[in-house]
Queue: 2 jobs
Job 1
Amino acid sequence: MKFLISGGTGLIGKSIVQLLRQNNHDINILSRTKRSSFDRVKYYKWNPKIQTIDYDSIDDVDVIINLAGENIFGLWTKSKKKKILDSRVKSLQLLKKLINHKPNNVKQIISASAIGIFPNSKEIIFDENSTQKGSSFLSNVVKEWEREIESLKAFKINVTTVRIGMVFSELGGIIKVLRLITKSRFLSFVGNGDQKISWIHLNDLTELFYKISQKNYHGLIHAVNNNPTTMLDLISILTNKYKLKFKVFIPELILKSFFRLLCLGDFYEDIANSSKNVVSKRINKVYPELKYTDLKDL
Ligand SMILES: NC(=O)c1ccc[n+]([C@@H]2O[C@H](COP(=O)([O-])OP(=O)(O)OC[C@H]3O[C@@H](n4cnc5c(N)ncnc54)[C@H](OP(=O)(O)O)[C@@H]3O)[C@@H](O)[C@H]2O)c1
């Protein structure tokens, strides 16, 4: 099979590319940067911001995987927030332009989305049938993102929306961010640390994307391991692993006011004090062999 992957140079993309190579598939990668192709991996330039793309990238492609998007970590300035939204919406718009432009063999498009679509809650458990949506900045981004994904159905190809939970990996994402913070040997967290974190290990997520393509699974699926943890438990594991010295509990009110003062109220709700208790009713049908279901497996 031949795959076209946008965002194939990122944390999740690189891991999927590696698995596809091991299984002898051909891979085209869309990147904003010119890169050298190697054996079965070919790079093609695109720029979602100005809607330019190399149309040859779709030749003989069976499955498109969309992972492109501005990284959400960093300072949420006005311009960063615009990039977070625009990069996701415009990437999908450019993929639509590509599919429209040239006759092609694409049978399925699998796109990343995020569990950030749900409101913060420590009690409510959200699954694929939950209709409740949040109203924070990130929830609104994901709503627009999923609207664009839905619109791909007009092409009469199978469309899969993968709402990804927090991805755990030594290679990047939240674990890397927390490790950087922990280098100061001070570890602070909000309130009593009972915020829910619904997570999936990068290796399991990679296998899930692959299984979705092989089984031609379409529709909505949550990419979480059905064993949400809490911030406190995650921090405890990291504390033991990286020999941290001090833990600082910051009262919610103080941190909230601090972030608001810096005009970063959205960041506080969506990242610093995020709490999502999300499960999947469908993951077992597609990928029952999840390997990482406990923090001890990390
Ligand atoms: N990691 C997580 O915990 C997590 C959780 C939920 C959802 N997701 C979603 O899954 C997708 C992949 O995540 P990831 O962790 O692999 O992300 P990542 O490491 O940040 O990689 C994203 C890729 O998107 C491209 N990109 C970055 N900024 C862009 C921009 N402004 N416009 C267009 N393309 C841009 C980059 O490719 P080039 O530089 O080659 O163009 C980059 O390699 C993202 O959409 C993310 O929101 C991730």
Job 2
Amino acid sequence: MTVSLSINSISAHYGKTAVLQDLSLSVEAGELVSLLGSSGCGKTTTLRLVAGFLQPTSGAIKLGDRDLTTLPAHARDIGLVFQNYALFPHLTVLENVAFGLKQRRIPTQERRLKAADMLERVGLSGLGDRLPGALSGGQKQRVALARALVIEPPLLMFDEPLSNLDAKLRVDMRVEIRQLQRANGTTSLYVTHDQEEAFSISDRVAIMNAGRIMQLDTPETLYRKPANGFVARFVGFENLLRLRVVERESAFVTAEAGGGARITLSQDAFGPIPDDFVLGCRADGLSVRREGDGLPAVLGTRTYLGRAYQYQCRTPAGAIVANGALSEPMAAGGSAVLVPMPEQCCILKPEG
Ligand SMILES: Nc1ncnc2c1ncn2[C@@H]1O[C@H](COP(=O)(O)OP(=O)(O)O)[C@@H](O)[C@H]1O
Ligand SMILES: [Mg+2]
């Protein structure tokens, strides 16, 4: 049975401090959605509300057609995987995995079979008799994963499950989590502050800031078409250039940046351009040329990136970072033109 999770306009407070404000989010049946944001933005608080460890001050949470909002935590049937594993140190690996089955009064024999089977699926067969203290971090996290999966919960939630593992293991484990989640079709809510992890593991990602969701979309859309300046900066658009349209000529728009520099953009390539807008581009999204129609710049420090040269540029509109071709290194102090590449740029509404 796969069900959807819907979080409807919830707010949460610790004492008098508002932590989440009017947050809404839905996870479709079988989907994995991540909450991504810097420390303190409210990711764990959101999970605690869904798990029932914290009560919202307003709003509702539903799993399928069950209203969870007032159900006690133990009645919510959610599988949880935490950063610190939270294994029972005095129980063997097998007993840890079987724990939830015991609570659900599954008979001993069936419990052992199910737990052993799940241990095999997470690559730990043979370790069932060990105590958690005799496992590596990666093995402990696999036990925690097996323990969450074995109860076949309608919803799985992960809170920074890989943060205590080394880099290589983090990558392996996230692939394994994704495979198990896909194979079981378990609706999942995953929390991380690591963009690469969130993008690689998720169907959709919610980028959070200060208790709000700034954008919820597929990783591809977030990466290429951020909806606002916050998300654009978050996904690496180094250059956000405020522009005002001064002339429109069929599909072509001439816009002026600070300092009076002008560039002409085609709406056929960039999409509709409002009178007042922000052009977002990564360093890779600006082509550095000796001449042409673009933003005039004086090249500053050049660094070698392997795939390109990166230039710190001075322009009438301020400092800009742009990458130029390896075939044509240009000297610091020289002048150049920066040409935005439409497919790598985004057009945003100005903020404030
Ligand atoms: N038990 C608590 N009491 C008071 N404030 C808390 C408590 N837990 C978290 N906070 C505050 O709530 C905000 C959100 O925290 P949290 O949800 O843990 O963020 P994240 O998981 O995204 O790092 C932070 O400002 C944090 O300091
Ligand atoms: Mg947290």
